[in-house]
Amino acid sequence: MSYPLHHPKSAGAVLALLLATLILCCASPLQARELTAAEARGKEIYFSGKSPSGQPILAYFGEELVEIAGEFATCGSCHGYDGLGRPESGVLPSNITWKYLVKSYGHVHPDGVEHPAFDVASLKDYMVNGTFPGGAHGDPSMPVYDITEQDLDDLIAYMKLVGELYEPGLSDEAIEIGTLLPGQGRLAPLGEAMRGILEAYFKQVNERGGIYGRRLALAAQSLTDAEEQAAQIRAGFERKEPFALVATFTPGADHVLQSIAAEKTLPLIGPFTLFLRNTYTQNRYCFALYPGLGDQLRALTVYAANDLKLEKRKVAVLHPADTTALPGALEAAEEACQAHSWEVVTTLPLPAGPFDMRTAIAGLKKAGINLVVFLGMEEQALTFLQAADAEKWHPTVLASGIFAGRAVADAPEGFAGRLFLAYPTLAKDRQEWGISELSRLMRENQLEPNHLQATISAYAAAKTLVEALRLAGRDLDRRKLVAVLEKFYQFETGLTPALTFSPNRRTGARGAWIVGQESEAGKQPEAPVEAVWVDLK
After folding, report:
1. Residues 485 and 360 in one domain
2. Do residues 114 and 83 share a domain?
């Protein structure tokens, strides 16, 4: 049966309960054990907000009882794996560990409300009606739930374990660190290079004593089908969940992985991607080393506005016809231009195959476009530049060096000093001591110097993770790992820009290198061409 909603005034509880004060558990977690069937079902509800039975779970917020699906108001998203609470939009969800809920002397809330200890019956009543034991109304910032009795029993069965078990992937002897890498196709060699350097570095750390006596165990999952990556990722976590993820490479499924990391409160350090979720809330557990494509576009427009003194621009954004190929890139380009009050006159889709740009270019030229943000690939960029040159039209062009950079070598001379590329990292980021460390590690483990940038990214991500684990201490959990990473300031890996994170910053190097096209022989460029780092504050 389904519990009815009859909250008289305000919404009261988050699915897993919310008392007012955050109290840390003093006892050490127990070793992981096999969950009972009820506990396993309850765990799924706690983290996903969905019933294993398929029955809907609904949450109701505020005095108006606004309805949303339970998956958007999960216990785990606010209270975490340990039940100690995670700040959310100015609200501090409280300790919901079982021994705290049932403590004999009851509870006194910051607003002065007092009530006796919970038991199973009063906890159920609080979840569906928002009423504390004794009848007082619960916290109005928390939802009440429409949930079946069976699901509620299963949830409480799991709640009795929250804070009492080690987090996934953690034991007295080891810390299991996961990674997801291509295992088939043209990207498989790159994935193998990343896996090789991770194994070598973790081996080195373990030979030196590990992390406070715990060894690092790498759990590498090979993704075998690009079209099924999302399903493979979820299936892998259902089989076994690591303590944290490092140096993942999931082309085509980056946003899926970042969503899963947020859903499971699973720290993700150094994903090898240009596609990062837009907000801190979406990216709370994802710590990227390099700027994503959005930050690179922002850096390009900042450089154009400040260093090139480009004002009153009329802009065209050229992008792939399939916008899922570069998720979020078109929106990021438009926002970056609008931040400088530039007029985005048009957005023009680029076909996937061969195409004729002459008609489109004639229209752009007639419209007075004097700046183009180009989001296409190398061949598309070269087709565009050559067609524009044939029309004697040479606007300033801003593009990603990763995607279009190789077209620069064959760019027409008319674009000298007018073509600017953004890169997340360049060779000048690598310091001698960092190169020496990596070279020695690769030599000792007989690793080939192939796919160097991917290898560097994986190694730097692993170094960042290991440093955070050391600073978090022996009494480790995911919450502490995230808190430590949020305090990183100008951390030097020796191979990347210095990394800084904060509670509101999830990209270690926020900005991009801007490189201009070389000028025609014997002529001065119209703008500087040396690599310039544009920092995004």
Report:
1. no
2. yes
